[in-house]
Amino acid sequence: TRIVFVTSTPIPGSVVDYYLNLLSGIPWTHARKRLTLLSAHDASPRSVTEKILERPRLLHRIRQAMGDSGQAHLSVFNATRLERDLAIALDIPLYACDPALSYWGSKSGSREAFRRAGLQFPDGRENLRSMDEVAAALVELRQRNPALRKAVVKLDEGFSGDGNALFDFQGAPEDDGLEAWVQTELPKRLRFEAAGMNYPRYASKFQQLHGIVEAWIDGDHKRSPSVQMRVNALGCLETISTHDQLLGGPNGQVFLGSHFPANVRYRGSLQECGQLVGKVLQAEGVLGRFSVDFISVLEGEQWQHYAIEINLRKGGT
Q1: CA–CA separation, 13 and 108 (whole Å)
Q2: Mean pLDDT of 271-289
């Protein structure tokens, strides 16, 4: 196996050597001979794929380093139309999900997939297009669940929790005044995970990206596990691993890291839930790596899993 690794700016040699020394079963010097490092020499905050596509000489160098295109494929962290264009330009397969299927990696698409899979997931509404629809969904959610303390508003394309905001129902009336109360309190009470976010900016992003509202899952013993899976090039569904996520941020919704594997007390049932979602995605034509995140709550002697979102890409781990 040979790897051509392309970055925006060059990687220091000491960093490369450090990571190659972590490989087991092969001398790092042998691995280094099979690794070609190329760079766009461009530190601007744009996709490295975009930088490659606008540099014909870099594309030529990639083709030369790649060798036989019939034996190569393109592997990326997240597949968009740009990565699809790059695969076409290099005349090699893209080993990732077709960007046309990106809906299944959105918050709304995740809820639809969970519904098809027959899994538990938080009460709420998806495919919302404005903050007026968010307010209406919050009212409906509270009316269905009078004891609900909090709800989460999420952008469909939010990443690592940064598109999330928490709404607190404390002090909400239980009569016909609920709708007016939510309309008035929504701009004041939303607590954003993203640093520097405010209500006008969030409302603008929501109108552009759309999103969901769902119940906040409470519990004295609560975990945030995840299942990592893939549909390989032969179309076979595989479970790769599990982990327990470490979350932080203002409301505990931002991914910080993880423990491998997930807790043995619920690892098996977690994998079963992941398989159910994976079969839905497999039937839709999803290819490559993805992960499914859950909130797991200890109820009595059993851990109950609530499906939260699908990451239709390589994960943070």
Answers
A1: 43
A2: 97
Q: Per-residue pLDDT tens for 124-161?
A: 999 999 999 999 999 999 999 999 999 999 999 976 66
Strand partners, 302: 299
**3 CB-contact burial (10 Å; exposed 0-12 / middle 13-18 / buried 19+):** exposed
Phi/psi at 5 (5° precision): -110, 120
Range list for CATH 3.30.470.20 in the chain: 102-106+219-311
What is 102-113 written as a DSSP string? GGGGSHHHHHHH
Compute the distance between CA of residue 125 and CA of residue 211 in angstroms, rounded to an integer. 9
Q: Which helix (H) or strand (E) holds 246?
A: strand 237-248
pLDDT at residue 40 tops 80: yes
Encoded tokens for 206 = 């929501």
With vertex at residue 105, the alpha carbon angle to CA 212 and CA 267, rounded to the nearest 5 degrees, is 100
Q: Cα separations (Å) of 314 from 240, 266, 296, 311?
A: 12, 23, 22, 8
Candidates 130, 108, 125, 216; CA nearest to 166 is 216
Which DSSP letter does residue 9 get?
S
Residue-wise DSSP of 112-142: HHHHHHT----SEEEEE-SHHHHHHHHHHHH
Q: What is the pTM of this model?
A: 0.89
Written out in words, the top-level CATH class of the domain with range 102-106+219-311 is alpha beta
Before 261, cis peptide (omega within 30)?
yes
Instruction: Summarize the chain as % helix, strand, coil (round to 5).
Output: 35, 25, 35
The angle that helices 199-209 and 131-144 make with each other, rounded to 10 degrees, is 90
Residue 6, token pair as written in the block: 């392309």
User: How many other C-beta atoms can be found within 10 angstroms of the C-beta atom of residue 98?
Assistant: 15
**DSSP secondary structure of 39-107:** E----SSS-HHHHHHT-HHHHHHHHHHH--GGG--B--SS--HHHHHHHHHHT--B-S--GGGGGGGSH
